[in-house]
Description:
Blueprint: H1 12-15, H2 17-35, E1 39-43, E2 46-50, H3 54-58, E3 71-72
Antiparallel strand pairs: 1-2, 2-3
Amino acid sequence: MTEPRLPQLADSDIQGSYPALLRAAQRARELARATGVPLVYWQDGRVVYEYVSKDTAEGSPAAPSSPSPTSES
């Protein structure tokens, strides 16, 4: 997956926020897989609980790859 082009902003903190969010998402996947708990996120107006496989945890740090069919409204 290619990263979207972001406008050049004067504030370096804002420029670094997108890569930081990607790193945080990747770390959350790794931690969920290692501890056997679901990754919980909001998608399409619903809370989704997804158990992360090894392939997903090591994959792209972007948005969750395939939502679990188990979700609550």
